[in-house]
Specification:
The complex is a heterodimer of chains A (156) and B (86).
Chain A: E1 5-9, H1 11-19, H2 24-33, E2 37-41, H3 43-53, H4 64-74, E3 78-80, H5 96-106, E4 110-112, H6 116-119, H7 125-130, E5 135-137, H8 139-155
Helix pairs in contact in A: 1-2, 1-3, 2-8, 3-4
Chain B: H1 9-21, H2 26-38, H3 44-48, H4 50-58, H5 62-84
Helix pairs in contact in B: 1-2
Classes of the chains: A alpha/beta (156), B mainly alpha (86).
Chain lengths: 156, 86
């Protein structure tokens, strides 16, 4: 069996997984539940998941109870990082920097997000040389990575 | 089974506080926490329940949902920054 892939997810990935478990974000979180992803979180990420739910349209019916149930369940399969240094700063969206710093502290290989500000860092040469082992990709791209790694493992 | 693990004084203090709040002694509270962590994760569809039904009924695509969540995230952060730096 392949070792789990170390990763950090943007707070929106968790919310999208809760709202549409059948979508790519849901599949990413299900992969973490199944032990295929070593998923790291911090207090900041948990707080953002919680706060984000309050900003959603009522028609989506995302209640605080549903979000709390998701957060409590995360404790079963995620790894908390207590101290996240703030070595990286990002003027375009200062709060995005935490996700990069969390991924760096956790030595994660992937940061999974749909956020254009974060995804654009993949085209920044300075960023790529500083964080050579980190890739920032969308949920569908991450699923392809999981698929290709599992195919590689089967052929070995 | 009984196990012994070292924890920091800070963690002990926090756990003791939470245990007291639940009316439990520390070993019982920690045993319950560990039992919870050892449970298998809850399937996402079960966690989602009526939320998933509401999403399917809404006609919103997954991409539109993603855009909606990104917009909500940036509004949330802007509000937080405004509160921090009034």
């Amino acid at each position: 069996m392949m070792p789990p892939i170390p990763a950090v997810f943007d707070c929106t990935v968790f919310a999208q997984a809760l709202i549409n478990p059948d979508g790519p974000a849901g599949s990413c979180l299900s992969a973490a539940q199944a032990g295929r992803v070593r998923l790291f979180v911090s207090d900041f990420v948990i707080r953002e998941i919680h706060e984000l739910s309050r900003k959603l349209p009522a028609r989506l019916q995302v209640t605080p109870e549903r979000v709390l149930a998701l957060i409590l369940d995360l404790a079963k399969y995620t790894e908390p990082i207590d101290t996240v240094p703030d070595g990286f700063t990002y003027r375009r969206d200062p709060d995005d920097a935490h996700y990069v710093n969390l991924a760096d502290a956790a030595k994660a290989s992937f940061l999974v997000s749909r956020d254009k500000d974060l995804l654009d860092l993949a085209f920044d040469d300075d960023f790529n040389s500083r964080f050579a082992n980190l890739r920032i990709i969308s949920p569908p791209q991450f699923l392809r990575e999981l698929e290709s790694q599992s195919t590689e493992a089967k052929t070995e | 089974m009984t196990i012994q693990v070292p924890i920091t004084p800070e963690a002990e203090a926090r756990l003791r506080c939470r245990a007291q709040a639940c009316g439990e002694d520390l070993p019982s509270y920690i045993a319950k926490l560990l039992a919870h962590f050892a449970e298998p994760p809850t399937p996402l569809k079960k966690l989602s329940g009526p939320v998933f039904d509401a999403f399917k009924a809404s006609g919103i695509t997954d991409d539109e949902l993603g855009d909606m969540l990104e917009k909500a995230k940036h509004e949330m952060r802007a509000e937080r920054r405004a509160k921090q730096n009034p």
